[in-house]
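Can you make up a polypeptide sequence alongside its tokenized fold?
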Amino acid sequence: MSRRILVVDDEPKLCDLLVSALTSADLHVLTAANGLLALQTLEHESIDLVITDWRMPGLDGPGLLGEIKTRFPLLPVIVMTAYSTVRNAVQSMRNGAYDYIAKPFDIDELDITVHKALQFGDILRDNARMRAQLHEHQQIDSLVGESPAFSRVLQAIESVRDSSATILLTGESGTGKEMVARAIHNHGSRANQPFVAVNCAAIPEGLLESEMFGHRKGAFTGALADRVGRFVQADKGTLFLDEVGDMPLPLQAKILRALQERVIEAVGDTRERKVDVRVIAATNKGLLEAVANKEFREDLYYRLNVFPIPLPALRERVEDIAPLARHFARTLGASTGKRINGFSAEALQAMAEYSWPGNIRELQNCVERAIIVAQGATIEAVDLPGYLFHSTPAIDREPGVEAGVPSDLDGSLAQMEKQFMLAALQQSGGVQAAAAQLLGISERSFWYRLKKLGIQVDRIAR
């Protein structure tokens, strides 16, 4: 496969010389007259190596090197200079250059340096890919469980992992939607490509478009340099849009176009760029209800809902609580230097009877706390947080009744949700951001629930 080299120099004759010297069956050379043009090329072209002059008008070699190390950290850079002092050479190496060459240079030495730099770049990318895969495998290990409800999720992952179809993961906060998204990516045909996650609720509305599609320098106040968006970062790989239900309506139209036409346009740019991205979206909201309320585009909903995977709440997979708790005890215990052998029968019983409104995330936090306070190798009931013993059971049973069934499910769930919201506000002293963090949801989602449930924060007792 042909490797692509970008030569940056304000002297056209030198650029022509390098093109002639380096162009071959396995090397393709592009040129840029200055650092700013080089950055534009890097955003729209796949480049394996940059060779840049040291002194140039505008953005010079050291400035371009700094931008590349910030925005393209795996891209090797060779610096050229006619001012071949030890000071310049040492400075460029300290700032992250792979090597430097002095003008005038020997063509054979240049060829050797270029091929070594390309090999170095391959090593950097391979190491980064291996670290990412290791991280993804560690995340996938958390997909623990054999309950019927969770088995359906695993079957769905197996069915869709090699497809490029858009996937919509639904479920309560903390049910492991990002872990499932990573499992789909890691086990599929795009496993060796980027996995890029975006929390649509955590980014200010005014910055979301730039975050998704990138922007050009000067596109708006504060845009001091060009920026690559998440769609471009995820090219050939997977883009995970978490909390997609919190995406503002104006951006939804642009996301829809990106999904339909597979092209994006950076803010402040008139050029389109094709992208090959498999999108996995996730939400803990009822999107159909949001569509009915004109808060979410119907056409985008159906574009996202090509392959829906509903994730069960932890209270719906009680059989998996003990295996998950043991898994967290094993991994978290190792990271804290404690060896935990397991849980007492009383501790497991208490966890099985708790309702887990925060789902897997809450279970993980519970186990982590228990590991800290445990005096021995076995976690006892006394090591668990006190709230586990003063909460609604996961399964509410009455004498002579198979299982407690509410006559008004929606009303009962809304009442439970309101109780948890009020409890979090009480515990946080009325600070909404802290209350949202306690519940494991975004601030925007918290505010939405306040409005939906009619909770007046100024009336919460401090």
In short: The longest strand covers residues 3-8. The CA atoms of residues 288 and 301 lie 8 Å apart. The chain has four domains: 3-128, 150-312, 316-389, 409-459.
